[in-house]
Amino acid sequence: MTTEPTPAGPPGAGAHAGSPAGARAGSRPGPRPPASPTLPAVLPPRDLPGLDPRWSRLVSAPDAAGVERRWHVLDTAPDGAADGAAELAGTLLCVHGNPTWSYLWRHLAAQASRHEPRWRVVAVDQLEMGWSERTGRSRRLAERVEDLANLVEVLGLSGRVVAVGQDWGGIVASGWAAGELARSARGRHSGSRVHLAGLVVANTAASYPASAPAPGALKLATLPGVLPAVTSRSELFLRTTLALPRPALEPAVRAAYRAPYRTRAERAGIEAFVADVPIGPAHPSRPALDAVTDGVAALAAAQLPTLVLWGPRDPVFGEEFLRDWRRRVPHADVHRLATASHLSPEDSLFAPAVLRWLDERVLRAAADGPAVPADAPAVPEPAVAGPGVFDALAAQAADPAGADAPAVVEVAADGGSRTVGWGLLQRRTDELAAGLLALGVRPGQRVSLLVPPGADLTAALYAVLRVGAVAVVADAGLGVRGLTRAVTGAGVDWVVGVPKALAAARALRWPGRRIAAGDVSGVALRALGVTAHLVDVARTGAQRLAAGAALPPVPQPSAQAAVLFTSGSTGPAKGVVYTHAQLAQLAQAMGRTIRIGPGQPLVSAFAPFALFGPALGATCVVPAMDVTRPATLTAGALADAVAAGRATSVFLAPAAVVNVLATADALSDAQRRALAGVRVLLSAGAPVPTPLLQRVRELMPLADPRTPYGATEVLPATDVGLSDVLEAGDGEGICVGRPVEGVVVAVAPLDADGRAGLELVDVPGVSGEVVVGGRHVKDHYDQLWLTQAASVDVRPSPALRAAVGAGRWHRTGDVGHLDEAGRVWIEGRLAHVVVTADEVVTPVGIEQRAEGVAGIARAALVGVGPRAARQLVVVAEASTPVARTTVADPELAEAVRAATGRNLAAVLLVPALPTDVRHNSKIDRARVGAWAERTLAGERAGRLA
What we know:
Layout: E1 3-5, H1 20-23, E2 56-62, E3 68-75, E4 90-95, H2 106-114, E5 119-124, H3 141-155, E6 159-166, H4 168-185, E7 194-202, H5 218-221, H6 226-231, H7 236-242, H8 251-258, H9 268-275, H10 286-301, E8 306-310, H11 319-328, E9 333-336, H12 350-368, H13 391-398, E10 406-411, E11 417-421, H14 422-439, E12 446-450, H15 455-466, E13 470-473, H16 479-490, E14 494-497, H17 499-507, E15 513-516, H18 522-527, E16 530-533, H19 534-546, E17 560-565, E18 575-579, H20 580-594, E19 602-604, H21 607-610, H22 613-616, E20 620-622, H23 635-645, E21 649-652, H24 654-662, H25 669-676, E22 680-683, H26 690-699, E23 709-711, E24 714-719, H27 722-728, E25 734-739, E26 743-749, E27 768-774, E28 780-781, H28 785-791, H29 798-804, E29 808-818, E30 824-829, E31 834-835, E32 840-841, H30 843-851, E33 856-864, E34 871-878, E35 886-887, H31 890-900, E36 906-910, H32 925-936
Parallel strand pairs: 4-5, 4-6, 6-7, 7-8, 8-9, 10-20, 12-13, 12-14, 13-17, 14-15, 15-16, 19-20, 19-21, 21-22, 34-36
Antiparallel strand pairs: 1-2, 2-3, 3-5, 10-11, 17-18, 18-28, 23-24, 24-25, 25-30, 26-27, 27-29, 29-30, 31-32, 33-34, 35-36
Helix pairs in contact: 2-12, 3-4, 4-10, 13-14, 14-15, 14-19, 23-25, 30-31
C-alpha cells in the first residue's frame, strides 16, 4: 500500500497544483485540461467547509480485476491512536452513493473523532467517483463490492469494524459486510483481522424485485437517451440530488459536493452508476444484487447489530424500502429522521444517532456478552397484572343480566341516539376478527383505523387486537399532512376508514390494502380501490364461526397491541407502542383515576378515551360533535349525551370546556338537570385554568372537576381535583396533583444551560425535567430509536429504582418540581425554558401572573436576543381583542412587569396566539419566540396566528 498525505500549504493550495490532476480540484485558477476518459486520483481542495484536510489521503489498491488503482480516502486516524488520544473503539467504514463522495460523512467523521470513546472513520471515494481514479470503464455492483474488500485488505483494517452506507453505497457496504461474515466463517481472518461488529444503513435497499420499475426519481433518468443528458453531459442529476435536503444545503456545501464533478469525464461515473441500477431480471447486476439480498438475510440470521436511519422525504428510496428492511432484519434498530430527505447523513441528528447506537448496541453489548441467539428458547412471558384487554368486554357480554345493557351510545345532532349492547358488541367483535383473518390480516400486521368514535370503531379496534394485529390510532386532528406522516411512517398493511379517509389514502398513496366503513356505494368502493367493507367482513366472519371455525388464542401479553400517536403539538407526532399487557395496565390506571367501570358510564369528547370503555366494562357515550375539533362541543350536545347514556362521568378536552361554558346560556331546564347529575368531570391534554374549572362546577355542582396529568406515553401520571388545586394555593406553575397508584414521579435537575441531567431526585423545590416511572409507561417509540433511547436515559437512585420495580421510566419533556406535600407542579416545556446570561427561567409561572393582570387574557413568555444579552418578552392576547399587533400601553406594561416581578423588555399584544392542531390550547412558544425576535428587530414578521 502507498499513501500520500495532504501536502502542507495555505488554505486553497491543492495537491499537484498546476498539473492536470491538480486542475480537477475545481477551485484553482487556470484553464482546465481537455476531458479525458481516464483521470488520476487527486486530493480535494483544502478549504471545503466542514472537511479537515488532514483526513485526506491517496491509497493504491487492486480493483476487482487485480489492476492497481488509486483511491481517495478520508481517514480520521490513519495511525490508530498513535497521536496520544484515547484508544480507538473501532472503525466506521463509510461508503457513499451516487452522485456524492466521501464528503457525505464529514459530520460523522468530525463527531466520531471527538466522541468518547473515539471511533476511527474511513470514508472511501468509490472508483470513478469523488477524487478517486477515473479508470475509463463502467463498474458493476459485484466489482464495487470486491473493490471495497480489496481496499480494506490493503488498508489493514483490524479489530472492530462497522460498515456504514447510504444510497447504493449502502448496498455495497451490505455486500462487503455479508462477504466479511462469510470470510470470517471460513476462517480467513482467524489470525485477528477484521471483526465485523455492526451495520448502519441509510436510505438504501436491502433488495429490489426484478419485476419492479426504476425507483422514484430514477425513472426519468434511466430512459434511453436521457441518461447521458442528465448525468454526464450536464449537472442536472447532481444538482437535483443536492436540492433534496431540508433545510437546504449552504451554497458552499453544494459547491463542495460538485467539486469533483466539473467536467463530463469526471461525471462519467455518475452516469455509469445510474445505468448499473439492476432494473429487470436480465440486467447484468441482477445476480449481484440478489447476492447482496441473500447476504442481508445472513447478517440478520447472525443477529449482527444493525441500525437503519431513514429520511422519510426521499423521492428515490421511499417507505417501501424501509418496510423491506424491517421485514428482512426484524431485530434492526430503526430511527426515522423526521425532516430528512435522501441525503440523510446531512441531518443534524444522523451522527449523534450513530454514535449513541454504537455505545449502546455495539460497545455495551460486547461488554455484556454475546447476544441471545435468534433460535434460543423463548423466555416465559410474565402474567398480566390485573385483567386483560378483552376480559371486561367478555364478562359483560356473558352476564345474562347485562348482555343487553348499553356498551356504546352514539348521540346524533338531532338528539336521537343509537345504542349497542354488550352482547352485540362482543358478537360483532368476534365476527370481525374471524372475517379479518379470512381476508388475510395476520398477527403483527399493522392496521390503521380511521373511523369516527362509536360502535363501529370500538368493534373494529377490539377485533384487530383479538387477531394479534397492531392497531394504529392517529387522530384526524393531526391534519392531512400529519395524518399522512403517521400512517405512512407506521408502515401500515391495512387501512380501515370511512370514504373520506379512504379517498385521502388513495390520493396521497398511503400504504396498505383498504377496508371501507360507513355508508359507501359500490361504485365508490371500486373507485377507492377497496378490498372489502366492514359489513362484508363481519358477514364472512359470522359464516366461518357458524361453520365451526375458532379464533386463535388471545395474543401474548408481550405482543405489540397498538401504536398511538402523540398530538404533534411539540414537533412531528410520534408513534407510541404499547403491548397487550401495557394497554391493559393503562386502561386499569385510567379506570381508577377517572372513576369509570361497570355501572359508571362515561361521555367522552376525546376519541382515544372512548376506546378504554370496553376494557373496563364501562358504557361509552359519544356526543354529537366533530371529534377532531374539541371546540365544536356545545353545552347542549354534552347534556344530550349525558342524558342518553345516563352518564355519571364526563371527559372534556380543554378547548371543549371553553366552548361548553360559552354556550351554556342556551341550555334548557332538562339539559341543566342532566348535567347536574354528573359526579366526575375530567379534562386533560393541556392545563385548564382554575377559574374555568370553577365556572364548570356551576353547571355540574356534584362534580369535583379533575385534571389528570399525563401524555400518550404514560397516561395518567398524576391526578388532581379543583379542591386540591385550591388547597395547594399559588405556586410556580400549575399544580397537577400527586402521582396515581403505581406511578413514581421524579425530577432531573436543570444545569446552567437549561439542560436536564441524568440523575433523578425527588427533593421538594428542585426544578427540572419531570420523569415518570410505572408499569403502564409505553413500551417504546415506533421507529424512533434515538428518541426512545433519550426518553429512558436516566439514573434513578436505588430507592427510586426499587419504587418503579419492573416498570419503565419516561422523560416527559415537561419542566416542573415537587412540593413538600408530594404534589407535582408543571412549569412549562423543557424546549421553552429561557436561558439568559444570569439564569434559567421556566415560563408558566410568569405567564400565570401576567394573565392575572386586568386586560390580559392569555400570555406566552419568550426570550429574544443572543444568550449573553437575552431579554424576556411577554406576548399576550388582550381581554379586549386587538385588530393588529401592538406594543402594550405603558400602564398595562408596567402592571405586567409588576405582577411577574420581571424587568420585561417588552409586552406585545396580538390578535391571537398560535396553538397546536389537536388540543387548540397549547401555545406554540417556539413560533411566538421566533416571531417576537423578528418583530423587535424591526423586520416584517407577518401574522403570528
